[in-house]
Amino acid sequence: MSLDPTSAVSNLESLQVKDDLFKNVKCFVTGTLDPKITKLLKDGGVSMSKFMDFCSHLICGANYDENDITEAGELYEIPSVTEAWVVASVRLGRLASTKAYFPLKTGIFCGLRFSATQIDTRDLRRLYAVLTFHGGTFSSRLDRKTTHLVCGSARGPAYSKALTCGTGVHIVTPDWVADCLKSSSIKPVAVYHPRLLREQRR
Questions:
Q1: Higher pLDDT residue, 58 or 133?
Q2: What distance in Å separates the CA atoms of residue 20 and residue 16, rounded to the nearest whole number?
Q3: Do 181 and 124 belong to one domain?
Q4: CA separation (Å) from 69 to 73, 92, 136, 178?
Q5: Coil, strand or helix: which one is 5?
Q6: How far apart are the C-alpha atoms of 20 and 24, rounded to whole Å?
Q7: 153-199, pLDDT tens digit by residue?
Q8: The domain containing residue 50 runs over which residues?
Q9: Which of 82, 97, 145, 178 has the most C-beta neighbours closer than 10 Å?
Q10: Within the chain, what is the greatest distance between any pair of CA atoms?
């Protein structure tokens, strides 16, 4: 079954948080949190502080201050995490590891923004986890900021829309992601276009 990425990745309204999930978390926020993230934290019993001392986590929203991250790590020795850590924790039903959600990433996909289409539920979740773990960002919709559309097959409205974007959006198969990770480098995209899958099957 194919899944709309919106429901798998970005639809925060459908997430149910345990009322004590964040009860042992005392956080300081830098930047601006999405209101839905704030609600998840509060519903999970978080304590929010206006001061960093005695906090357990620094949570980074949009336009966060890198100086806060440095201070949290060097002065207070507390982990800094992105909003994605909150979502991952809610999905897991326990606090996720903080290492994968450090905001100052230098991963292989850092600076790249992905969207996906024609990929089933389990593979889409795995793809989201791999791309964000290695520094990329993921959007439920193809938009002007999208750099790569990962396609399971050469069809569908998102694929058709990406074709009209010219060189603005690179269209690749999931194999491109896997091969980039294997080589620890960004591979050329031309040989990973999903239309080649169709040609190989002929």
A1: 58
A2: 12
A3: yes
A4: 6, 25, 19, 31
A5: helix
A6: 8
A7: 999 999 999 998 877 899 999 999 999 999 989 999 999 999 887 65
A8: 12-100
A9: 82
A10: 63
- CATH of residue 148: 3.40.50.10190
**Co-location of 118 and 80 in the same domain:** no
Cβ proximity of 160 and 169 under 8 Å: no
H or E segment to which residue 181 belongs: helix 174-183
Give me the residue label for tokens 């439920």: 140
Q: What is the signed CA dihedral for 20, 127, 117, 179, rounded to 10 degrees?
A: 170
What global pTM score does this model have?
A: 0.54
- Tell me if 5 is assigned to some domain: no
Q: Is residue 23 part of a domain?
A: yes
Q: How far is CA 89 from CA 15, 83, 86, 92, 104, in A?
A: 11, 10, 5, 5, 20
pLDDT value of position 3: 35
